[in-house]
Write a structure and sequence with these properties.
single chain; mainly alpha; Growth Hormone, Chain: A; 84% helix; 17 helices; MFS transporter; 2 domains; 400 residues; 0% strand; membrane; globular
Length: 400
């Protein structure tokens, strides 16, 4: 594999770390700025909303310059945002830093996927893209727990300073290793937006919002949930995040494997199991052993939905997938924002730190209902398309 893929994977690792590490240091950040845990949850919601807005805008703007220059620009934005978070004198400034960093997220993965695929032979394109995304997955096994540990021992500002340095490494790697490919062909924006006339595209994004949101309703507040309810020390949260990351890694692999064979059945099973497991987590969160078992299962089930949902929206928007794909990356993060906000609402209402698990279960169950609707509409569309062909064939049969 080309070394340029390593540079892209490093960038993905940094982005994955900064997105998720905030959950491990949320109590420390809230304590330093003197805000409540639900209020600090806006650092998750704000980042997610930034991705939602930035992904389609920067993906479209990225067609005006070469892909390499756009990747360098995005890594620069990422560095500035994390440096601002590390040095923030007030909560509002840190929130701005999180939003600035988030603008690089969606476009980096969208443009980076195109670059990764262009670096290898056609038969290896999927492997090249998965290698870049492996940086995001590994971030949840190494980067997030490591960043959480550093934040608890040396302070959360050091964590975000290190993440900014990871961005510098990624930028230098892109500059040195990614070949200049010239300016991409101008996209037909009208054609790209036409994909959103398909109700299936909206259903797919809604499933993404709700399914992924189900996971984040619980995980956003995992630090206070595990320390105040399960009885773990702050240091124990680090190892719980490792378990969650391992679950994500395995779920992503299995989801990709089985989605190729039976996409909708895979979604049905994972969303139903995710809803049930989140509901169960309300009880298992009170036990250190059971919580440690449940967390990787949530990670696996949550991320097993990613490949089928991503493939489904690409299939439904096959004529103009670029903007729809970027929008779906935004949809994942809208799920994060919605879940973090709803989880904060139920905690602030006095229902306790396990109450976001009920919210997550409800979100995942709603995604399951939408997947049934999407499958029904897809079958009806296929049947309608096949009917004229069958009717046309009948006279031919009669003539023999």
């Amino acid at each position: 594999m080309p070394l340029a893929l390593l540079a892209l994977a490093i960038g993905a690792f940094g982005i994955g770390t900064t997105e998720f590490v905030i959950m491990g240091v949320l109590p420390q950040v809230a304590g330093e700025f003197g805000v409540s845990i639900p209020a600090a949850g806006w650092l998750v919601s704000g980042y997610a909303l930034g991705v939602l807005i930035g992904a389609p805008i920067l993906t479209v703007l990225g067609t005006k310059v070469s892909r390499k220059k756009m990747l360098l620009f995005l890594m620069g934005v990422f560095i500035v945002g994390n440096a601002l978070s590390a040095a923030a004198p007030a909560f509002g400034v840190m929130l701005i830093g999180r939003i600035v960093a988030s603008f690089a997220h969606g476009a980096f993965f969208g443009i980076g996927s195109v670059v990764a695929a262009s670096l290898v032979a056609p038969a290896k394109k999927a492997s090249a893209i998965s290698l870049m995304f492996m940086g995001l997955t590994v971030a949840n096994i190494v980067g997030v727990p490591g960043g959480t540990y550093v934040g608890q021992v040396f302070g959360w500002r050091v964590t975000f300073g290190i993440v900014a340095l990871l961005g510098v490494v990624g930028l230098l790697g892109v500059a040195a290793l990614v070949p200049e490919q010239g300016k991409p062909e101008a996209a037909n924006i009208r054609t790209e937006f036409a994909a959103f006339r398909n109700v299936q595209v909206w259903l797919a994004m809604a499933m993404t919002v709700l399914g992924y949101g189900g996971v984040f309703a619980a995980i956003t507040y995992i630090a206070p949930m595990m320390t105040d309810v399960a009885g773990y020390s702050a240091g124990g949260v680090t190892w719980l995040l490792v378990l969650f990351g391992i679950g994500m890694f395995l779920g992503n692999l299995l989801g990709g494997k089985f989605a190729d064979k039976a996409l909708m059945p895979m979604l049905f099973v994972t969303l139903a199991a995710l809803s049930g497991t989140l509901l169960l987590f309300t009880a298992t969160a009170h036990s250190q052993v059971l919580a440690a078992i449940t967390l990787p299962v949530i990670g696996a089930l949550g991320f097993a939905t990613v490949p089928p949902l991503q493939k489904w929206i690409l299939d439904q928007a096959s004529a103009a997938p670029t903007l729809a794909s970027a929008a779906n990356i935004g949809a994942f993060n809208l799920g994060n924002a919605l879940a973090a906000w709803l989880g904060g609402v139920v905690i602030a209402a006095g229902f306790g730190y396990t109450s976001p698990n009920w919210v997550g279960a409800l979100l995942a169950a709603t995604a399951l209902l939408l997947s049934f609707l999407a499958a029904f509409l897809d079958r009806r569309t296929r049947a309608a398309a096949a009917a004229p062909a069958t009717e046309h064939a009948e006279p031919v049969t009669a003539q023999h």
